[in-house]
Amino acid sequence: MSALRRTAIVAGVFYLATEVTAIPALLLYQPVLRDGNYIAGANADNRVLLGGFLELLLVVACIGSAVTLYPVVKRQNHSIALGYVCGRVLESAIIVIGAVSVLVAVTLRQDLTDTADAGNAAVSAIERSLVAIHDWTFLLGPSWVLGFNSFLLAYLVYRSELVPRIIAILGMSGGALVTLSATAMLFGVYGQSVHTVLALPVFAWEVSFAIWLIAKGFRPSPILAGLDGEPVARGGGS
Questions:
Q1: Is it the case that residue 203 has pLDDT exceeding 70?
Q2: How many other C-beta atoms can be found within 10 angstroms of the C-beta atom of residue 130?
Q3: 57-72 pLDDT per residue, tens
Q4: Are the C-beta atoms of 21 and 55 separated by less than 8 Å?
């Protein structure tokens, strides 16, 4: 297996890992995010802590995908590729902030278990504040910044033809759509249910992009010339 083929597989695995970790983590967080009485309620700490661990793996996958693809896509456009990497790091940082807010709720629940303070109004207000921090970071990181990052990467692979153009077009349109949708949610135009539907194209982009890289690798492109002995091929250009 060539080094270029391994790069494609590793990038694809990282991208697939973002979906495998992000969705279960959100489900595992539900006792904190939706119950409204987690600190004074029943013990679901291990479930929430597992969600936090999955989000740490999500952060590794986000940064790993960017670092793996950067040496390839920078040959198409160095500035845009660097912007993609920086955006991926920013997205990861926002995800960590959201994870910390949920994990702080676990610490409070453990510290206040079987005390009179567990159910008082001040503690409830703190819990709501922690949930609000997570909800805002979820909107800004895995939605707004994610869409921006998806558009940049999809544009690079569209220009270089590293993957079929239908996949790249799905990424550009899905990325733009989820960022616009997150902006609409920011101003209260509609709620989470509508945003979830509008985020489906970017989800489809990430999954199809990952599967293509794992199964097929990079398509022939001029930007691959000199990488792993690849000859100059059709398409591409800055």
A1: yes
A2: 23
A3: 999 999 999 999 999 9
A4: yes
Gap between the Cα atoms of 151 and 162, Å rounded: 15
Question: Which position has the token pair 């250009």?
Answer: 237
Of 233, 179, 228, nearest to 205 by C-alpha is 179
Contact 28, 219 (CB under 8 A): no
Rg (CA), the chain: 20
- Tokens at 51, concatenated: 């969600």
Q: Give how far Cα 216 sits from Cα of 5, 122, 183, Å.
A: 9, 55, 35
The encoded tokens of residue 98 equal 């959201």
DSSP string, the chain: --HHHHHHHHHHHHHHHHHHHHHHHHHHTHHHHTSS-TTTS---HHHHHHHHHHHHHHHHHHHHHHHHHHHHHTTT-HHHHHHHHHHHHHHHHHHHHHHHHHHHHHHHHHHHTTSGGGGSHHHHHHHHHHHHHHHHHHHIIIIIIHHHHHHHHHHHHHHHTSS-HHHHHHHHHHHHHHHHHHHHHHTTSS-HHHHHHHTHHHHHHHHHHHHHHHHT-PPP-GGGTTSTTPPP-SS---
Q: Supply the pTM of this predicted model.
A: 0.91
